């Protein structure tokens, strides 16, 4: 059984969470909703990010925090690294979008650094062949969203209960193999072929603070990280969870 992890935390203060590869803040917003004080890290400027943001290479910044001891200011770490080899986006795409390192796998190096922090952490990736444990799989239907957006989560130094996966209510709206199908979910990626408009993507995922299509395409719905965050808060500081 997972035991509560003692965290240095002043009474009445929200525990700090480091949001690596933060993009526009879909994950960060969910953790904030769950009760965390979020600081993001991204290699390019993200003016729509709704919290404090450090512009830096995420792995280099994490290594510097560990070396300086500043990592102790944080209670937990979330990381959504660029989509890895075997997933839909290639390393070339990652580089073209300003995501830094050009080697194929960020996750092994990232995991080593996260283990070194001694903090509970979460690595998020899409369903695919990235080398992460799929301990938790989340889907928009679990939260009544208008998008499916399946994602897997690897928690480190703690565990997360897997919620039940409800049956999908129908198709994702759009063209598949030349055939148009209507359905209760929108395709929150790409353009054309029945793909969602920016306002539809915002409404489907519960993300209202950015209207940049690329950011919406990459984001996870805040409902996912709020679910993870509430479980994390209960693990690191049970008394902080509201009744």
Write a short abstract of this structure.
The protein has helices at 26-34, 58-68, 91-96, 107-117, 198-205, 213-218, 222-236; strands at residues 16-20, 37-42, 52-55, 76-79, 121-126, 136-138, 151-156, 174-176, 179-181. It is an alpha/beta fold and 243 residues long.
Q: What is the topological layout?
A:
Layout: E1 16-20, H1 26-34, E2 37-42, E3 52-55, H2 58-68, E4 76-79, H3 91-96, H4 107-117, E5 121-126, E6 136-138, E7 151-156, E8 174-176, E9 179-181, H5 198-205, H6 213-218, H7 222-236
Helix pairs in contact: 1-7, 2-4
Mean pLDDT: 88
Gross CATH architecture? 3-Layer(aba) Sandwich
Strand count:
9
| CATH superfamily (homologous) name | Vaccinia Virus protein VP39
Number of self-contained structural domains: 1
CA radius of gyration is: 18 Å
CATH top level label:
Alpha Beta
- Helix/sheet category: alpha/beta
Number of helices: 7
Main beta sheet, described? 7 strands, mixed
Which residues sit in consecutive blocks of at least 5 with pLDDT less than 50?
1-11, 87-103
Shape: globular
- Proportion of helical residues: 25-40%
Query: How widely separated are the two ends?
Result: 22 Å
């Amino acid at each position: 059984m997972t035991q509560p992890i003692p965290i240095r935390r002043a009474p009445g203060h929200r525990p700090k969470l480091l949001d690596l590869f933060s993009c526009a803040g879909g994950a960060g917003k969910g953790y904030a909703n769950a009760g965390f004080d979020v600081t993001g890290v991204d290699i390019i400027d993200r003016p729509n990010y709704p919290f404090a943001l450090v512009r830096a290479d995420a792995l280099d910044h994490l290594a510097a925090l560990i070396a300086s001891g500043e990592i102790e200011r944080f209670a937990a770490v979330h990381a959504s690294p660029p989509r890895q080899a075997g997933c839909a986006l290639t390393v070339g795409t990652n580089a073209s979008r300003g995501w830094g390192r050009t080697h194929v796998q960020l996750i092994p190096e990232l995991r080593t650094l996260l283990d070194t922090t001694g903090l509970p952490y979460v690595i998020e990736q899409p369903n695919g062949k990235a080398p992460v444990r799929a301990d938790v799989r989340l889907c928009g239907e679990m939260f009544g969203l208008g998008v499916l957006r399946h994602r897997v989560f690897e928690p480190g130094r703690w565990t997360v209960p897997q919620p039940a996966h409800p049956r999908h209510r129908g198709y994702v709206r759009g063209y598949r193999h030349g055939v148009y199908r209507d359905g209760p979910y929108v395709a929150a990626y790409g353009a054309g072929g029945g793909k969602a408009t920016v306002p539809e993507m915002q409404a489907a995922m519960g993300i209202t603070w950015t209207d940049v299509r690329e950011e919406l395409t990459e984001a996870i719905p805040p409902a996912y990280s709020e679910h993870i965050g509430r479980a994390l808060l209960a693990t690191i500081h049970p008394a902080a969870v509201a009744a």
